[in-house]
Each structure stands twice: as C-alpha cells, then as structure tokens.
Amino acid sequence: MFYLFLTSYSAILISELVGDKSLYTISSLATRFRFLPVFCGFTGAFMMKMLIAVMLGSVITKLPSVFVAIVSTAMFFLTAVVIWFKKSEAGPVPRKDFFSKAVLITFAAIFFSEWADLGQIMAATLTARYGLPVVIWTGATLALVTKGLLALVLGYGLRKYIPVSVLRIVSVAVCVTLGILSAVSLGR
Asked: Can you give the residue ranges of every domain in the chain?
C-alpha cells in the first residue's frame, strides 16, 4: 500500500510540475494575497478535485473537452478581472473579511479550471486499476499541495523584489494569457 502511495504521489507531482497552468495561477495569486488564504484555497480545491477524480475513476477522462476548456477559460479571465479591480495596497491586508475573500478567489480559480488534466486522469486510472481510493487520493492530494507550495513560494519570492503595482499587471497578464491558451484549446 505504501508503494502505491509513493507511486501516486511521485507520478502525479511530476506530471503536474510539467506544463500545468495552476502553478502560474497560484504564483499570481500569491503576489496579491497573504500566504494562508492562498494555501487554504488551493488545498481545499485540490482536495475536492482529487476526491472527484478518485470517485469517478476512469469516467473523468470522458468529460467533454469543450466543456472543460470553456470553464477553464472563464475562470482564468474571471481571476484576471478580480486581481485587476482589487484595490491596491502596499502589501497584503490582514482583515478577516479579506481572508475569506482571498480563500474563495483562490479556491474558485483552482477548482473550476483544468479539469481532466493529467494528474486527475492518473488518479482516476490508478484508482480504477488498484481499487484503493483513499491511498490514491492521499498521495495525489499531497502531490498537488506540494506543487501549490512551490508556486506559492515562487509568488512570494517575486513579491519581495518586484513592486506590487508591477506584480498586479503581471498577474493579470498571466491569467489573461492562460485564458487565451485555454480558449485556443476550444478549437482543437
């Protein structure tokens, strides 16, 4: 069982680190929001996405690609709009109401984008093959949280050296670019 946990963790972490757009989304969100709400938001989203992947087994691979692309595109553009219109501060704001909004924005940006990606397909396939959903879910979720933490550290590193006003423009540009790339995938 531990072997299957390590297999799911390493396979999904590697697949997610190579070309996954949520790395950029999390890094962008980290330039605008405090560490804890971003961490809570993406952790909750990753937990739910992998739970759905494991529960659906191989069915998730059959989701219509057009639907996946439309939802992903909309979420990238919505995230860009939220970042653009959010009031600019010199740094993160520690208000309690801001915390819940940052968690919600992060959760939505991650949860509603990139469905049926390689990591979810791997988790679904491993579950269908080995029939140990809790082990697969744990390994897969921890792999995604590891990826999210790497992206979060990158975003905070950028925030130390680049002014928030520049990071806001870069964050919006990244989200718009990801939205465009997602929209282009509609044509495939």
From this structure: 2-187
